[in-house]
Every structure is written in structure tokens, then in C-alpha cells.
Amino acid sequence: MPLFPDTIRPDEPRRRRREAPTAPSEPLKDKALEIYRRLCGVYECPIPYFHSLDPLSELISSLLSHRTRNADSGRAFKALRARWPDWAMVEEAGVAEIEETIRGVTWPELKAPRIKAVLSAVRDRVGSLTLDFLAAMSVDEARGWLEAIPGIGPKTSAAVLSFSTLRMPALPVDSHHHRVAQRTGLIGPKVDVGPSHAVLRAQLPDDWSAQALYDNHEVLMLHGQRVCFHRSPACDRCVLLDICPTGQVRVAKAAGRT
Ligand code: SF4
Question: What residues does the HhH-GPD domain cover (predicted)?
Fold first, then answer.
């Protein structure tokens, strides 16, 4: 492995600049903590990690999971591992074979070539198929390194650092987490999932552990899945109702007060 696997070669994509978000106000930080505290009470933090994959395997798992139900992406990941027990074999496999193996996920025809391209990019930059060296970097450096690979955005880079055996303090934001953050007013209505990562991370204490940031992500995600549904959020049984502007408008409308 090269001494400095993060060194950018001339033919490599340039790292995207990581923009620092505007510093959040104290009331917004307090609100983020209050939401975390209440939801942790409901969903019982600390939340156990759902698996323990090495970072490269977690990266492949994250690529499979995009816009796909967990059960389907989990099945596709297991099918890949059963057919090719190491990632070097997947790198050498044909796109059509990979596509056929992962057919249960959304857009297998896009994900199959992407998985091959990502594995090749890792080999080109590192000299072997491993991401274990990310453990020696800061979270920002490691995320920048991953996001320099085409097809890897903030959600995937944060998932690799947080969910894998690296257990680094990064905050992933999925669509459920994003929806709850938007409805409760932690982020504005025009902040997309990608940019929301930096905004939501900045609202939480700098020195939070990997477990605390993981819990924050998990409880907002669980709340989006179980209460703050996409179409009909169950505001009448939500522990955030008194601090959620969206919920208050919905409840007032239902009561005929607006
Ligand atoms: S009050 Fe309603 S809109 Fe607000 S977080 Fe709860 S379920 Fe979602």
C-alpha cells in the first residue's frame, strides 16, 4: 500500500471542497439536543449497531442500499458475498453477472457498474482493496477521501465511517432523518439531503462520540419510519409536537382552527 494513500494523482478526480455551514444559533442547537433527548427516551439509546462490516464491505453495502428497502439490499449483499467471497473477485466479474446477482435492489443496472468502478478506484488510489487506513484520518479527511470517488456522496461517506468497524464519529442523514429534521425546523424547506449533513452535524456538540452521533441518526430515522410518516405523520402521538411547527399547523388544521 502506498505510504500516503490519500495522495491525489493527476488522473484522479479532485476532492470536492467541503463547505462549512453557517454556525447554528444557540436556540437551534438547544432544539437539536432536545429532539435527540426526547427521541432517545422513546427509542432507548444507546442503539445497538446493526452490523459490523469492514469499511470496504460497508461501502458496497451502502451503494446497494440507495433507494432500496433494507431487506432487499441485505439480500443482494449476501448474494454478492456468496457468489464471490472477496471483493477482488467482484472487481474482476462481469457487469452483467453482478447485475444479475443484485437484481433485487433498485437500479441494479446502474449499481453493478458503479460497484466495479468504485472497487477499481480504491485499487488505483490505495494499491489494494482496503479502506482500513481511513481509521488514521480525521472524519473530515476520511469523508473527503471517499467523496473524491465518483458516485460517493455525503450519505455514503458518513455511513462508511459510522456503520463500519471504523466506528468513527460521523453523522449520516437518510430520507427519514431528513424529513423529521425538516418538519421540526432543524433545517429549512430547501435544504436537500446532501447539504443537510453538514448543517445537522454543526448543531450537535463537536466532541460527541461515534455512538452518540449514531444514536442521533438512528432515532431520527426510526421516528420518520414509525411516527413522522411521509404522507400522514401521526402528530397526535408524537413526543415532538409542542416543538414542531409542522405538527402544530397540522393539528390546528385538523381541529378547524385555521
Ligand atoms: S409533530 Fe408531526 S410533523 Fe412534527 S415530527 Fe412529530 S409526527 Fe412529524
Answer: 64-226
